[in-house]
TrEMBL record, chain A:
Statement: the UniProt record of this protein carries the keyword Magnesium: no
Protein known as: Aminotransferase class I/classII large domain-containing protein
Coiled-coil annotated residue ranges, if any: none
InterPro entries hit by this protein: Aminotransferase_I/II_large, Ethylene_sulfur-biosynth, NHTrfase_class1_PyrdxlP-BS, PyrdxlP-dep_Trfase, PyrdxlP-dep_Trfase_major, PyrdxlP-dep_Trfase_small
Family the UniProt entry places it in: Belongs to the class-I pyridoxal-phosphate-dependent aminotransferase family.
Residue spans crossing the bilayer: 15-35
Annotated ranges, domain Aminotransferase class I/classII large: 143-486
Keywords: Membrane, Pyridoxal phosphate, Transmembrane, Transmembrane helix
The organism of origin for this protein: Penstemon davidsonii
Automatic annotation (TrEMBL), chain B:
Biased composition (Low complexity): 80-93
Stated name of the protein: Aminotransferase class I/classII large domain-containing protein
Residues in Aminotransferase class I/classII large domain copies: 134-504
Entry superkingdom: Eukaryota
Regions of compositional bias (Polar residues) in chain numbering: 69-79
Gene3D superfamilies with a match to the protein in the record: Aspartate Aminotransferase, domain 1 (3.90.1150.10), Type I PLP-dependent aspartate aminotransferase-like (Major domain) (3.40.640.10)
Signal peptide bounds: none
Region (Disordered): 59-102
Organism: Penstemon davidsonii
Length: 497, 516
């Protein structure tokens, strides 16, 4: 009563409703504040702040320490919440598969290395040490590779890289070296873009099925979310602007701020090429809702169909406005068969993004000998032209062989035009028609057929039963072997007639 | 009953009838039904929703709300788009994130980055550009470049191409981890053996430090760092992680050595402010001062960390650079010899600085903490070392004879250069800290600055840069509390350059000392 009466008195008499509202509100506010501060303290907080332990252990240091420090090793020192979630063992079949193959390798069909690796190796065997160490004389020389160089890459490499990208993407648009930022692979390039374009808690729209690595590259350390926009087999898994708009509006209703769209073109895992109309529509949509476009064009040189590849750079080339919202990712790991070199490109038209990316590239820089090596290789334009042509031819013939082999088994793929993989429909082989059925089939393929393929659920595909088969690590003789192995599993799964 | 009403109406200043309509029922509630409970809850609820509303509003303005509309026509696409601007119009430039903006602004105008830029534009070269800016502000070692060059041109022809193009574990080839473990044991010259399985290789010390910060701290947490420290650490620790650094000043009176009392004080002050300290970051040899921490100090540090239940990150990037009387003691040794909790110590080693090859961009994290190790292995994909470079380094580090000779020669040359440089500065009346490690002379130029403050220090830095054409590292970006201290890296100079540098500094010191 002692408390209530004066308070009531305040409300009734002196000050009136103003004090009667303000005091409870102030109390409430401080309560919120107090709760917020104390929420962040973990439960295992040591409580004795003794400052005298240093003096105690002057003499006989060895024995006294173990006796006098009671807490010793009983209190576990804590790691961050982010580390705990990252360090958790892999639960996605994509990663589990990769790990298991590493233990027992053969027929690795899920991690595409290049078909034309032999050409690269031949060039390297003739030129490696000279070009890497700059001993040829046109490079920086040893002191060049030894000293600190710009974190975002040597200018010479940017120049030849821009030239290579122009060549590989069909010479329809030319890339500007000053807009190139080099990183140690496309993985950090994606992460850097994610940091630059979105703040914690923001989101990107991503047409699904998508590359499983996006979940890791875009989300782990950045605090950014990915919202899948599901595509269907009846549309050949191409996205539509309507679906994107719907997803965007739903996100807004939920209070999630969408910062951009992440597309892969050629798409991974389906292998579609996006045509000009779709890309123009995408740019219009992005302009209307004021968001960015990240275009992952890492498979741009791995086309084999009749359609031509169109880069986002070409789309904004013909328009004067709005280049600022387009950003392109490229790398040497797929088209050029050198994933071990760890070279990726972040290409942007936005000066702010470039400025921030150049600074952030210090966390993911390419080592200078590798840069020098690449400068040599990419400057040899005869070699690169020959390589690009041969690579496409080989991918095409391998694709044809592989698809024919699968067709014998009654398995159909989507009609794809690019990429190092096929998107195969195995839905009639799974029972039940669900993610569980799909994972059972994946298991069988792994254990019985001893092949590792990527199931659609790892790619966030909404229709169960689709699998990604990469065929570029095989040679022609191996395809019948692989088809035979798959046949074993197919026959097992066929319902009894 | 009437009195309160009259009071209310007078305090609300003759409230209009409408106002009374709200107040009276509310007052009724307070007085009669429900009492104090409702009289508090309702205003609080209103207040809470007001807060929520304000918070929502303070988010950057959402784009204009419009309906979808099909783009006009597929024929003559180019013309129609430009002539029929979408009725919504362009809704503004695409925004970059606020964290990108803050990264761009960081230190863009500070002396550290400005100095580096000036050297880039006008670098000194003995023959080609003798009037250029001499770089003394970046801790880089070129002393044994000639030996390394020789090795490379002899041995590099045997570099094999097998396996250098394909995917390999992102945290580094096991062969390189083994070679690195051997290298470190060799350089430290102790009986200590390093376990290759506790190693994660990264593309330089910068990502190694960032990965450790991500693994050990959440956004809003902080690390204690003895100051002065390398300006790069601000970027490495803070840019993307959301983690803060709390500098713990060390004083020239203590020869800039670590004081547990100051650490304790800083820890308690942070606690009072509600900031959670997750660990301590120290460099050993310290950068930029160059002192070595002795065994006692490191034991005290371990005691402190154990007591407060925090981590220790030890940057041991320059272990091959120690010379002089003091022996280097690594944290790896400390946690071996005593019954300490190994899982709270994490060490970063540089593989390239001691061999004059910082351009290789390769460093490693050494930790016994399984969580941190596992998280770092996964994060290594964002900063992996390219395989050709790994192969090169495997060859080099496995040639133990070459490594031994090179480290010996490096230490010798370091000592000689340091002595010459320090003596030269002494002639000018400039004293340096007596340090045994690192590539930098930490020099006291406070007698040369006009006003004993940061501004005076920056004026002197400016004079050194523009008049003497020397880029020195001033103490303020290193968070040194005492103005006037400068870091001068002497390991990119050749012996013949030292007199030139001393002469240029003399020029400035004479102008500073002369009565104005």
């Amino acid at each position: 009563m002692r408390l209530i009466v004066p308070l009531q008195g305040v409300v009734q008499g002196r000050g009136g409703i103003i004090l009667g509202s303000i005091i409870p509100c102030a109390l409430f506010y401080f309560l919120q504040f107090y709760l917020k501060r104390h929420r962040s303290l973990p439960p295992t907080n040591p409580t004795l702040p003794s400052t005298s332990s240093g003096n105690l252990s002057e003499l006989q240091r060895c024995s006294s320490r173990t006796n006098l420090l009671p807490r010793g090793s009983t209190v576990r020192v804590r790691v961050s919440a982010r580390a705990s979630s990252i360090a958790k063992p892999n639960d996605s079949p994509y990663y589990i598969g990769l790990d298991r193959v590493r233990e027992d390798p053969y027929d690795e069909m899920s991690n595409p290395d290049g078909l034309s690796l032999d050409m690269i190796e031949k060039w390297l065997s003739e030129n490696l040490s000279i070009s890497m160490l700059g001993l040829r004389g046109d490079g920086l020389g040893i002191s060049g590779i030894a000293t600190y160089q710009p974190m975002d890459g040597l200018m010479e490499l940017k120049v030849v890289m821009a030239g290579f990208m122009t060549e590989v993407m069909g010479r329809t648009v030319s890339f500007d070296p000053s807009q190139v930022v080099l990183t140690s692979g496309a993985t950090p390039a994606l992460e850097i873009l994610s940091f630059c374009l979105a703040d914690q808690g923001n989101a990107f729209l991503v047409p699904a099925p998508y590359y499983p690595g996006f979940d890791r590259d875009m989300k782990w350390r950045t605090g950014v979310e990915l919202i899948p926009v599901h595509c269907r087999s009846c549309d050949n898994f191409t996205w539509s602007i309507t679906a994107l708009e719907q997803a965007y509006n739903q996100a807004r209703k939920r209070g999630q701020k969408v910062r951009g769209i992440l597309i892969s073109n050629p798409s991974n895992p389906v292998g579609n090429l996006l045509n000009k109309d779709m890309l123009y529509d995408l740019l219009d949509f992005a302009r209307d809702v004021n968001i960015h476009i990240i275009s992952d064009e890492i498979y741009a040189g791995s086309t084999y169909g009749n359609e031509e590849f169109v880069s986002m750079a070409e789309i904004v080339d013909s328009e004067d406005a709005d280049k600022d919202r387009v950003h392109i990712i490229y790398g040497m790991s797929k088209d050029f068969s050198v994933p071990g070199f760890r070279v990726g490109v972040l290409y942007s038209f936005n000066e702010n993004v470039l400025a921030a990316s150049r600074k952030l590239s210090r966390f993911s820089s390419v080592s200078t000998p590798t840069q020098q090596l690449l400068v040599s290789v990419l400057s040899d334009t005869n070699f690169t032209r020959e390589y690009i042509k041969t690579n496409k031819q080989r991918i095409r013939s391998m694709y044809n062989l592989f698809v024919a082999g699968l067709r014998e088994l009654g398995l159909e793929c989507t009609k794809s035009n690019a990429g190092l993989y096929s998107w195969v429909d195995m839905s009639r082989l799974i029972s039940p028609y669900s993610e569980k059925g799909e994972l059972d089939l994946w298991d069988n393929l792994f254990n019985i057929a001893k092949i590792n393929v990527t199931p659609g659920s790892a790619c966030h595909c909404i229709e169960p039963g689709w699998f990604r088969f990469c065929f570029t690590t095989l040679n022609e003789k191996e395809i019948p072997i692989v088809v035979d192995r798959i046949r074993k599993v197919v026959e097992r799964c066929k319902p009894p007639v | 009953m009437k009195n309160p009403k009259k009071n209310i109406s007078s305090t609300t200043g003759g409230g209009a009838a409408a106002g009374m309509r709200v107040i009276v029922p509310l007052q009724g509630v307070v007085q009669g039904r429900g009492g104090l409970f409702f009289g508090s809850v309702i205003p609080c609820a209103l207040f809470y929703f007001l807060q929520l509303y304000l918070r929502r509003r303070s988010d950057p303005a959402p784009p204009p709300d419009t309906e979808p509309e099909n783009s006009s026509g597929t024929l003559q696409r180019v013309q129609s788009r430009s002539s029929l601007p979408s009725p919504r119009g362009s809704s503004g430039p695409a925004q970059v994130s606020s964290r990108a903006n803050s990264v761009v602004k960081q230190g863009a105008d500070g002396p550290y980055y400005l100095g580096l830029k000036r050297v880039e534009e006008d670098p000194y070269h003995q023959l080609d550009n003798p009037g250029g800016v001499i770089q003394l502000g970046l801790a880089e070692n070129r002393l044994v470049l000639d030996l390394v060059e020789e090795w490379l041109s002899d041995s590099a022809k045997e570099l094999s191409i097998s396996g250098i193009t394909t995917y390999h574990p992102f945290d580094g080839l096991i062969e390189l981890k083994i070679a690195a473990a051997g290298f470190m044991s060799q350089v430290i010259e102790g009986p200590h053996l390093f376990n290759p399985e506790q190693i994660v290789l990264t593309a330089g010390a910068t990502p190694a430090i960032e990965m450790l910060i991500f693994s050990l701290a959440d956004p809003g947490n902080a690390f204690l760092v003895p100051a002065p420290y390398s300006p790069d650490l601000d970027g490495d620790v803070k840019w993307r992680t959301g983690v803060e650094i709390i500098p713990v000043p060390c004083r020239s009176a203590d020869n800039f050595s670590l004081s547990i009392t100051s650490l304790d004080r800083a820890f308690n002050q942070a606690k009072k402010r509600g900031v959670k300290i997750r660990g301590i970051i120290l460099s050993n040899p310290s950068n930029p001062v160059g002192i070595l921490y002795n065994r006692e100090t490191l034991y005290d540090l371990m005691d402190f960390a154990t007591e407060k239940n925090i981590h220790i990150i030890s940057n041991e990037l320059f272990i091959g650079s120690t010379n002089g009387s003091d022996k280097f003691v690594s944290m790896a040794e400390i946690i071996e010899t005593e019954d300490f909790d190994r899982i709270r110590v994490h060490i970063v080693y540089g593989l390239s600085n001691d061999l004059s090859l910082p351009g290789l961009r390769i460093a490693l994290i050494y930790t016994f903490n399984e969580h941190v190790l596992s998280a770092s292995k996964k994060l290594a994909r964002f900063s992996s070392v390219s395989v050709p470079t790994q192969h090169l380094l495997i060859s080099m580090l496995s040639d133990t004879k070459f490594v031994r000779q090179t480290i010996e020669v490096s230490r010798e040359r370091l000592q000689r250069m340091r002595n010459e440089f320090v003596n030269g500065l002494k002639e000018l009346g400039i004293e340096c800290v007596n340090s045994c490690g690192g590539f930098i002379c930490w020099a006291d130029m406070s007698s040369l600055i006009k006003s004993y403050s940061e501004k005076g220090e920056l004026d002197l830095w400016d004079k050194l840069l523009n008049n003497a054409k020397i880029n020195a590292l001033p103490g303020s970006p290193c968070h040194c509390v005492e103005p006037g201290w400068f870091g001068l890296c002497f390991t990119t100079l050749s012996e013949g350059d030292i007199p030139l540098v001393i002469q240029r500094v003399r020029g400035v010191s004479e102008t500073c000392r002369s009565p104005s």
